[in-house]
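Section 5.1 Outputs to date
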Amino acid sequence: MAYAGKYSAPDYELILDQGCNLAIESTMIYHSPEVKEQLERFGIPVLVERSSYESHPLGRMEWIKLYGALLGKEQEAQDYFDGLLERLAPILEQENTGKTAAFFFITASGGVNVRRSGDYVAKAIGLAGGVYAFPDLTGESGVQSTVNIQMEEFYQKARDADILIYNSTIDGELETLDQLLEKSPVLGDFKAVQEGNVWCTGKNLFQESLGLGDFIVDLHRVMTEENPPLTYLHPLS
């Protein structure tokens, strides 16, 4: 693997010297359409990867089949995907636990950023056997994954949630409840904080789409087990 520059300013000379015959770009390339056009002028086809638009976690994981097709390994990709589903089957077949979970982070202005109800994280909570704390929260557009709300609204909807999950992607991982309460002392009133049922994501969660199966397993375990082994979550104590 070689570094060939940012998506908006690639090293065209290196790309051509290495004999690249396919460019796979994220949807960020739409912000620099001239790059896509230049690559195509060089005879390099550009595939824009849109897995981030999938609103269902299993849909995101299924993109492994596309890469299998590109590399001539369709059966290997299918077998891998089937293995992920097989591991999840016991969880997906269980009845809902009825436990409510909120997934959030505190913004720099003191508000709260939460996933909209149609987002894949909210759906992952449901697949894991939980109930998302904001079932009717929609964004301004169908592709918007998060919504900023005031702390008052978050307090009203999530104070009695059984589980709180802090999203560490923006401002780094937390290790203790004290660190969380420094961001917003009012969280001390929350049921999950008082019962010690607060978790934080690892920084690599959103970089590993195929890890969503493990994330669903993690969610199910924090709802049903004490001190469970986890991959993408860790407790705040």
